[in-house]
Amino acid sequence: MIPAPGELLVWRDGQHFDRWQDLPCTLCDQPTPMRSHSGEPVHKACAEGWVTANPVEARLGRFASDLAPKPKAKKGQGDHA
User: Fold this and answer.
1) What is the pTM assigned to this prediction?
2) Would you call 32 helix, strand, or coil by DSSP?
3) 21: which residues sit within 8 A by CB, 6+ positions away?
4) In the chain, what is the straight-line distance between the N-terminal and C-terminal CA atoms, in Å?
5) Is the separation of the CB atoms in 18 and 32 below 8 Å?
6) Burial, 30: exposed, middle or buried (Cβ in 10 Å; 0-12, 13-18, 19+)?
7) 34 vs 61: CA distance, rounded Å
8) What is the pLDDT of residues 52-68, one digit of tens each?
9) What is the pLDDT of residues 23-63, one digit of tens each?
């Protein structure tokens, strides 16, 4: 899911964190353990700034949020109120 400019990215999935190796951020060159969906090393804040500064290019999905998980239904509760 691609956030609107100024919105925060949701990176809750473990794929966004490399606990073994920091690599230079592709946007600021400082070390980061964070990774985009495509594996690109980038700080989340840098990616959010890039989305805000490049709203047209951002629609191509370079940096995206995780898909929201489906809400779990309560046991014993149907679709009725």
Assistant:
1) 0.79
2) strand
3) 33
4) 30
5) no
6) exposed
7) 17
8) 999 999 999 899 999 87
9) 999 999 999 999 999 999 999 999 999 999 999 999 998 99
